[in-house]
Specification:
By secondary structure, the chain is α/β, with parallel strands linked by helices. It contains 13 helices and 10 strands. The chain starts with a helix and ends in an 8-residue tail after the last helix. The N terminus is likely disordered.
Length: 335
């Protein structure tokens, strides 16, 4: 690290030294890569201002794991310190769940998975349905039969959202026009039910189109990269057209690590990186993957504040309200 780098990081740390209440609207904090230190990381996140976080579904076989993780993070029993004395657990963010079948894994999904998910929605009502949508990032995803199945599962899960009156979390990659066409034709109304265009990656016109439908744009650690010019222009364009009420924050951890938190050269997503499309346990993940954590969310807030030239305290309070609106919740802003 150069002296200039050190000075910049020192300035950044000063910027986030004040704690602002935050909501991490999209995580995969149930992934095995967090198994060895999840509780400590949750406590750290709370210390950095994260009061709520959402575990987001992508494969049916992991749904129960998500509920097990939520249970573990909501334990209220006392713990013993090194002297054997009981003490209260340090506070952690309140954990919520969204259930969904991710389009990238479409070849693994079955009609039975849809049926099982529909049943689970009635038995263990989640906060939202997601992540769902369309993805043509790879050539395999562009095959007509594969893309048709993606569209089928997208519509089926939108139907569930309408039936259960739940917001959706969208995963749209290289298929924004097609997704917008489906959403405009469907009974799902984001103006009434809320919803988030997670980790938004489209252009300026697409950003404004999703916001016009009623969706909030999910802003990740990508915004901390000055070279992410298309994304930064899209966010600015949406805010110029609709105001700062159109945005929410997310880490999408363990992906999308803020640039100032990256230590490894490879920051690629885990998608498609293993037969199970999973973030592995630490012993297998090594240092090749820049593991993002919920406690990094203040970096996203800070960078967004700089990009939009909005005071960070004002932005944090508005983003809290935006998250409530997107998720149809009524969490009071901590004071």
């Amino acid at each position: 690290m150069t002296a200039s780098d050190s000075s910049t990081l020192s300035h950044d740390y000063e910027r986030i030294s004040t704690i602002y209440p935050l909501i991490d609207t999209h995580t995969h904090f149930d992934a095995p890569v967090f198994d060895h230190d999840r509780t400590a990381l949750a406590q750290q996140a709370y210390e950095r201002g994260v009061h709520h976080l959402v575990l987001v579904g992508y494969l049916a076989r992991h749904f129960e794991r998500m509920y097990e993780t939520k249970h573990a993070l909501t334990a209220t029993d006392a713990i013993q310190d090194k002297d054997g004395d009981n003490r209260d657990r340090p506070p952690m963010p309140v954990t919520h769940i969204a259930l969904g079948l991710h389009p990238f894994y479409i070849e693994q999904h079955t009609d039975q998975h849809l049926a099982d998910m529909a049943q689970m929605l009635g038995q263990k009502r989640p906060i939202a349905i997601g992540e769902i949508g369309l993805d043509t990032f790879t050539d395999a995803m562009k095959v007509p039969a594969v893309f048709a199945k993606q569209q089928q599962f997208f519509c089926a899960q939108l139907d569930m959202a309408v039936a259960h009156q739940l917001p959706v979390m969208l995963h749209i990659r290289k298929a924004h026009a097609e997704a917008l066409a489906i959403l405009k034709a469907h009974d799902y109304d984001a103006q009434q039910l809320g919803g988030i265009a997670h980790s938004f990656s489209g252009g300026e016109q697409e950003a404004k189109a999703f916001v016009k439908l009623g969706f909030k744009l999910g802003v990740t650690g990508q915004v901390t990269n000055p070279n992410a010019k298309k994304l930064r222009r899209a966010i600015s364009a949406a805010v110029n057209a609709h105001g700062i009420s159109c945005l929410v924050l997310e880490t999408d951890c363990p992906d999308m690590t803020p640039i100032m938190c990256q230590t490894a050269g490879d920051s690629a997503s885990a998608l498609g990186q293993s037969p199970d499309d999973e973030w592995g346990a630490p012993s297998t993940a090594g240092c090749a993957h820049n593991r993002n954590v919920p406690a990094n969310l203040p970096w996203v807030l800070s960078s967004l504040s700089e990009l939009l030239e909005i005071p960070i305290d004002e932005l944090a309070k508005q983003l809290w309200q935006n998250s409530n609106d997107a998720l149809q919740t009524h969490w009071p802003y901590p004071v």
